[in-house]
Amino acid sequence: MQGMTYPQFKSWVLNESIRDAHYHGLRFAPIYALWWATTDRKPPADFAQLMEQIGSHAVRRIAANGESTLRPATNADGEFTEVGPSGFRIRKTPNLAPGTAVKSEYVLLANALVAFHAGDYAAAVAGFSALADRYEIEAGDMEVAMPYFALAAAKTGDKVGFEKFVEGVNGDASPYVWLSRAMFAAVRHEPDKAFAALQHANNLRTGTGTRPISSGYLLAEACEFVLREVPDARVRKMLVDWARAFQQMVPTDAWAYAVEADYAQDPVQVTRALAMTIYLDPASPRLAKFDARQIAAARAWLKANNPFLQEKVAPPKRVTQVYAPVP
Fold it and tell me: Over the Cα atoms of the chain, what is R_g?
């Protein structure tokens, strides 16, 4: 709502009290920075460098086996947790000397996403592979990288064989596996397979938790990626329906209104969603798609109907029923 610029955000997130906020070994600033830069946004070119600054005091090191990575534990059970590389890259990269400092999963993810959103899919594949070299991406918080990796791989002819790996991962409980499968199907122009995979992902969707990308927005973004490859009315409807459903669950998240305004076809629906976007995220890049007349109509709707500024209504008086004791 503040319309904070990227330079302002950098200054805020690098403030010591913000950067150092943590619970045991779980630091919040890297996660929040990724949310901020990827939810209805494209991370700026220097975003990976910012992530390195944020996490400069939370170093990861190679474990005694030369392959796994030691990172700060997120609970009180110990100082470090040992995490292995992804099954996709295991034994495909040389071991490092124990104690060698390596980049955090957040920095590696940021680096890959910067390339991805810039349209440099070859660099993105290299970046996601580097992430998989040190951290598991088929489980845990880094699962969110899989759909982006899949689309980048598909766009570059999948020279690394990521689709074969994705097909071998059990997708019974992972929406990210199905989102990844949807990306490959979309690039091959297989609309039915892409739509079915999106449906599976929608049925399995999970909360964001400590994942560094909004799981709700990722589902919407995946629908957009599919639509760019294979325009499909079913996917468009799924996207709009999901945006509207998310508004009911988290009415303060601006992206859901912005997506609805972008893809809905009912003019009344578009006006309302556009108005809420203006109120909750005046810097949304999607606002540039609308002309002055549409913006004026949305502001007029907002002035009369903003649900966050409605006069409070007193709750109904509570009546307590008194029952006579049973004889």
Answer: 22
